[in-house]
Amino acid sequence: MAECSFGLVGKGYVLIASDTSASRSIVKMKENEDKIKGLGPNLMMAYGGEPGDTIQFAEYVERNLRLYHIRHNHTLRPASAAAWIRRSLADSLRSRHPYSVNLILGGYDHTSSMPNLYWIDYLGTMVEVPFAAHGYGAYFALATLDRFHDPEATLEEGLETLKRCINEVEKRLIISLGKFMVKIIDRNGMREVEL
Amino acid sequence: MARRYDSRTTIFSPEGRLYQIEYAMEAISHAGTVLGVLATDGVVLAAEKKVTGKLLDLSVAKEGGYGGSGEKIFLLNTNVIAGVAGLTADANSLINYARSAAQRHLFSYNEDIPVEQLAQRLCDLKQGYTQYGGLRPFGVSLLYAGWDPHYQFQLYHSDPSGNYSGWKATCIGANNGTAQSLLKQEYKDTIGLEDAIGLVLRTMSKTMDSTSLSSEKLEFATLTIDPQTKRPIAKIYRPAEVDALLSKHGLAKVEDAEATEMRSRDGLLVVH
């Protein structure tokens, strides 16, 4: 829970931000950990939860989506990838050793020319949302996003909203999460953006 | 020479051929014709029913079921219809398999199965019978007409060897050569659905042995997109609708007075 990630949809793009700390118990081990994984040319996923589970599951998803791409010559659409990932978590939850991983999935659907954002938790809950947040930071960020989010916002405005969220978390949360990493997906694919 | 290599489906002849597979394909070229045409705004399928006995009770099939009205055109999924040529019993088994595969895809990915993937699934199964011993290959060719968001409207053909290919217009079954050359002459890349329907019916009437067409011999279906919901609509025509379509295109058989009277009592009269 001492981890935090946000996502929001704007006009023709989706943004995901995640903190970059890797911690164990009360000890911060690292402060430049990339916790947003690219899953093919038009999909990305911010992951948090039990360390180890997160990486194992993220790589499992990454490899399976890559296999689908190779086999069928096209990637899964974000909606279908989200459904498959949700199903994997739901099956995992009902196994002997469930993954404890929370996700924010963002992608650009080239068939509909629309950005999509999905909020998924370790219980296999999935919702498509205009903005999303996981972790303690969600308590502050959701209120901020509720007030400032605009689905028609330009990239500059979207980044501005994201900055407000991060500032709010830095100001109010008792733990410092350090730097945030932000990635964007639009029709041109995924890239990192500086805040 | 051929006979020595006939008994096993999976043994190559010295010339490198698999005779049983070739015989299966030969059997299909005697089956009822199935014809498909890809248009810019839809796909059209038509199939010839080989005339069965006069005493065969079609009262249930006449109504047209959820999966189709008869024996040659079937709904595989909301976005795919298929026409089959070959052994009906084998076809039924493949259609069952295809419907399960489509539902499994829906379960995993919450989307309709892409058309090519469904064709691939069936071809994986069919290919197995060219390789694993002791079993007979499926004596069935299929035409798949479908829509998916990746490649929009599509038309595929698969044969007993497990090969499949995409087409703009194609034909399987009896007289497929004649039909293919007719289609080659008349097909245009810009063809719309209405013209495609006309092309299919004209080609069918020229290919089939009988001079006039009716719902007794013809099955017909289209796959289009609902302009409002943007979802695919598979429409398998009911016998009365097939007859109405045929008379609209001037291809219906001229009925005798008695038959016309009976029809009009059923409320199915089509005025010529």
UniProtKB/TrEMBL annotation, chain A:
Check the record and name the PROSITE patterns matching this protein. Answer: PROTEASOME_BETA_1, PROTEASOME_BETA_2
GO biological process terms, alphabetically, are:
proteasomal protein catabolic process
Name the keywords, alphabetized.
Cytoplasm, Nucleus, Proteasome
> One of this protein's Pfam families, by short name?
Proteasome
Task: Provide the primary localization.
Answer: cytoplasm
Q: Where in the cell is it found?
A: Cytoplasm; Nucleus
Q: Name one GO cellular component term.
A: proteasome core complex, beta-subunit complex
Specify whether Nucleus is a keyword of the entry: yes
Q: What does this protein do?
A: Component of the proteasome, a multicatalytic proteinase complex which is characterized by its ability to cleave peptides with Arg, Phe, Tyr, Leu, and Glu adjacent to the leaving group at neutral or slightly basic pH. The proteasome has an ATP-dependent proteolytic activity.
On subunit structure and binding partners, the annotation says: Component of the proteasome complex. The 26S proteasome consists of a 20S proteasome core and two 19S regulatory subunits. The 20S proteasome core is composed of 28 subunits that are arranged in four stacked rings, resulting in a barrel-shaped structure. The two end rings are each formed by seven alpha subunits, and the two central rings are each formed by seven beta subunits. The catalytic chamber with the active sites is on the inside of the barrel.
Record family assignment: Belongs to the peptidase T1B family.
| Name by which UniProt lists this protein | Proteasome subunit beta
Q: Organism, per UniProt?
A: Dacryopinax primogenitus (strain DJM 731) (Brown rot fungus)
Organism lineage: Eukaryota, Fungi, Dikarya, Basidiomycota, Agaricomycotina
UniProtKB/TrEMBL annotation, chain B:
Q: Which organism is it from?
A: Dacryopinax primogenitus (strain DJM 731) (Brown rot fungus)
Which CDD domains does the annotation name?
Answer: proteasome_alpha_type_4
Annotated family: Belongs to the peptidase T1A family.
Looking at the record, the residues that make up the Proteasome alpha-type subunits domain are 5-27
Q: Name one GO molecular function term.
A: hydrolase activity
**Entry keywords, A to Z:** Cytoplasm, Hydrolase, Nucleus, Proteasome
Q: Give the UniProt subcellular location, in the record's own words.
A: Cytoplasm; Nucleus
Q: Which GO terms describe its cellular component?
A: cytoplasm; nucleus; proteasome core complex, alpha-subunit complex
Gene3D superfamilies hit by this protein: Glutamine Phosphoribosylpyrophosphate, subunit 1, domain 1 (3.60.20.10)
User: What biological-process terms (Gene Ontology) are attached?
Assistant: ubiquitin-dependent protein catabolic process
- The name this protein carries in UniProt is Proteasome subunit alpha type
- Leader sequence range is none
InterPro entries in UniProt: Ntn_hydrolases_N (IPR029055), Proteasome_alpha (IPR050115), Proteasome_alpha-type (IPR023332), Proteasome_asu_N (IPR000426), Proteasome_sua/b (IPR001353)
What is the recorded function of this protein according to its Swiss-Prot or TrEMBL entry? The proteasome is a multicatalytic proteinase complex which is characterized by its ability to cleave peptides with Arg, Phe, Tyr, Leu, and Glu adjacent to the leaving group at neutral or slightly basic pH. The proteasome has an ATP-dependent proteolytic activity.
The superkingdom listed in its UniProt entry is Eukaryota
Main subcellular localisation: cytoplasm
Assembly notes: The 26S proteasome consists of a 20S proteasome core and two 19S regulatory subunits.
Q: Which NCBIfam families match?
A: PRK03996.1
